[in-house]
Each structure stands twice: as C-alpha cells, then as structure tokens.
Give the backbone structure.
Amino acid sequence: MIETLSLQERLHGLLKGRVLTEESLASHTYFRIGGPAEVMVYPADLEDVKAALKVAQDEAIPVLILGSGSNMLVLDGGVRGLVMNLSETFLGLEVSGEQIRCGAGVRTSRLLALSAMRSLTGLEGLTGVPGTIGGAIKGNAGTSLGAIIDHLDWVRLVDRLGEERCLARKELSAGYRTCRLPMGSVIVEACFTLRRAEAAEIRETISTLLVRRNLTQPVEVRSAGCIFKNPPGDFAGRLVEHAGLKGLRRGGAQISEKHGNFIVNLGGATAAEVFWLIERARAEVMAKTGVALELEIQIVGSPSAG
Ligand SMILES: Cc1cc2nc3c(=O)[nH]c(=O)nc-3n(C[C@H](O)[C@H](O)[C@H](O)COP(=O)(O)OP(=O)(O)OC[C@H]3O[C@@H](n4cnc5c(N)ncnc54)[C@H](O)[C@@H]3O)c2cc1C
C-alpha cells in the first residue's frame, strides 16, 4: 500500500523549524482578526525557506509570507496552503560604518532604534510603523518623511523556485507603498546606507513624530494601519471623514473616530465586519467625490471555511 503523506507531515520531516496546522491567524496579525492557516511554518534558516518553497512549488500549493501581519486583513475562512511566518527568523543586525545589514524578520522599530544609537539618520520616516523589515520593503512602508526603499542598497531574497538572488534598489521599481519583487519571493536580508547625524537630534525627531502619531492615530486599539492609499493630491482619511463615515460601526469593527483611514477592532470583530466597512467607505466616497479608493492593506484568505 502506498502511503500518502500530508503536507504537514512532509514539511515536518524536511524542516528544522516548527510546523503547525490549523493555527489561528488572529493571534499572528496586528488586527487580531482572521481564520486559521492550513499549515504554518516557522523556517529556522535559509535552507528551511528553500525547502518549504520547493515543496510548495512541486505540489502547486499557494504560499503566503507573513511578517508581523500589521498590514493584513485575514478573512474569516482562513488561508489554504502554506503560511510562512518570518517573524522569528533572520533577526541579524550588523553595522559597518554608515551601512546596516539587517535580517528580514527584524522589527522596523529595532532597526530605527539601532540607527539612532549609532548616530545614523535616514529611517526616521518609519517612526511608529509596526512590522518587520521584510514586510516594510514589500510595501515600501513610510510616511511623508520618506519610505524605506529610499535608503536601501540591496535586498537578498529566495525566489519561488528556491533560488537565492540579490537585487539592487533600482531593480525594485519602488513607488508609493509598492515595489516589484519576483513573484512569490521571500526577502531574507537587506542592506541600508544612512548618513551621520547627532544622535540627540535623531532621538528628538523620533519622539516628536511619536507624539504626533499618538495624537492623530488610534494607536491604542487594534487595526491594520491605513486601509486605503492616499489618492494623488488628497488624503483617504479626509475623504472618508467628508463622506460622514467616521465612527460608523459594524459589530466589533468601527471606522475610527480619530482617523478616517483606520478601521479598528473594538473587540471580537470579524473580517466580514471590517470588509463591510471597507466596501461602504469605498462606495460612499465614490458617490460623493468620484474618487476610487485603492487598498493599502493586503486582504488574504477566504471569506468562509471550505
Ligand atoms: C498602527 C499602525 C500604523 C501603521 N502606520 C504605517 C505607516 O505610517 N506607514 C506605512 O507604510 N505603513 C504603516 N502601517 C502598516 C504596516 O505596519 C506596514 O505596512 C509594515 O511595514 C508591514 O510589515 P509586516 O511585517 O507586518 O508585514 P505583513 O503585514 O506581515 O505583510 C505585508 C506584506 O508583505 C509581505 N511580506 C512580509 N514579509 C515578507 C518577506 N520577508 N518577504 C516577502 N514578502 C513579505 C506579505 O506577504 C504581505 O504581502 C501601520 C500599521 C499599523 C497597525
């Protein structure tokens, strides 16, 4: 009799890192919302990343890369296939002169703190942005003060065939909250070049930005950051507010009273409730202003199980 191994069993035999099944993604996303991952792996190292991607490629299994889940809405039915959780791997940080080499799993806040400590300026635009360096590069995270790829020299990744590649900044065609990576690739390391400045000045900028963020954004509640990209010449939050939607509630989800571009989880919100508010905001803003709001967050998974 030929025994067929499940995906979980195959990965368990191949990888050094943990392999979990039907793991709730709510506890792995900033929103605290979302159904389970069919299989979730925590690669222990580069070889694990390559091996997991190879299995997925051979068996045509979809792969979702997860950092801190701070820019994601996972739908209530969860994610079929493989979720590769990179929040515990690739945590190296190395400073050499004005350059910092950084693992993809390092928190943005940690990189920022290290650069301030070493009197290196450039990344302050990332003040208060949660998540990992991998997720930040994928979405070219930033603020009006600048985005992460502005300071990037190169990025090392593993493509979906399991091959390692190094790409220079200009090869990423970075834009507003986007960059172009080979499809399905996993960022594992990045290198930034910063400039020398007074550490006290850098710390002062960071604390001013944090105070401003705390005053204007609902940082005390669970969210996924800004839901929509700002349309050219305007602000999505202003348009949602102008449509009279601030404070609108659906179950445990609410369009923030503090900032129109945030949806917050007041407790026990479902993805369906958040999705309803997203669609309502898009429809009302379109009807009142003719502007089609584009999503900044990633929506992943299926609306219902099965
Ligand atoms: C309160 C709050 C405030 C925020 N403020 C800002 C802000 O000011 N500016 C801003 O730009 N964003 C902001 N965000 C959004 C979010 O923090 C950033 O987009 C962050 O960089 C996402 O990182 P992450 O690790 O959580 O990525 P995740 O949400 O886990 O993933 C985001 C995307 O990146 C991909 N990804 C993750 N890791 C990798 C990797 N190693 N290789 C390849 N792909 C990968 C995922 O597949 C997904 O497509 C905010 C979010 C919150 C909750």
Notes: The longest strand covers residues 186-193.
